Amino acid sequence: MSRHVPVTVFFNFRSPYCYLASKSMFGILDRFDCHFEWRPLGGWDGRSSPERAKGKLPIARQDVRRWCRRLGIPFNPPPVTTDPTRAGAGSLLAEQQGRLREYVVELMHAEWGEGRDIGDINVLRDAGRRAGLDPAALAAAVDDPALRGRLAEHMQQAQAVGVFGVPSFVVGEEVFWGNDRLDFLAEHLTELGAARA
């Protein structure tokens, strides 16, 4: 019998590295006896500051383009003004309704695969509908002050455990930062005896 392990996931929909992770991170749930403790972030939380991001952008875009080519997925960056806060709040509704995987995949594809602005309520409603959510309920959730407040709480939790970037996956005291650390996460879960038989 495998050991059940919680994996805390800090995620910001505006991060292209979260887009990359979204293509494989849910496979962890299929391969291991674990669950995600979902901790979405909003705004600039978990990402480089606007000043630093401006300098990093050309190199980061090259890097992400290479990753997308390797994974065989489209890469069409969204407008630079895209705000991920609504998407993060909406993901809490998706989690509550058992549609988190579908929501994350659809929203990240709309944003990074199609280059759409996920701060736009119509883009959110379209992606939510494809993910199996009621568009009206999602539209209410994305601007719900209580859900938006949870995003800020998640950033405080991230800082408390030493997380400084997204995506980050935390198991106990071990922090796995980046889309390219999922193999290390899988190895750690195997060592903990969480592999499904």
From TrEMBL:
Gene3D superfamilies: Glutaredoxin. The active site is at 15 (nucleophile). It holds the Pfam family DSBA. GO terms for biological process: glutathione metabolic process; naphthalene catabolic process. It catalyses: 2-hydroxychromene-2-carboxylate = (3E)-4-(2-hydroxyphenyl)-2-oxobut-3-enoate. It is an enzyme of class 5 (isomerase). Residues 7-189 form the DSBA-like thioredoxin domain. The keyword Isomerase applies. This is 2-hydroxychromene-2-carboxylate isomerase. The keyword Isomerase applies. Belongs to the GST superfamily. NadH family. Keywords: Isomerase. Its EC number is 5.99.1.4. One of its GO terms (molecular function) is glutathione transferase activity. It comes from Immundisolibacter cernigliae. InterPro entries: DSBA-like_thioredoxin_dom, GST_Kappa/NadH, HCCAis_GSTk, NahD-like, Thioredoxin-like_sf.
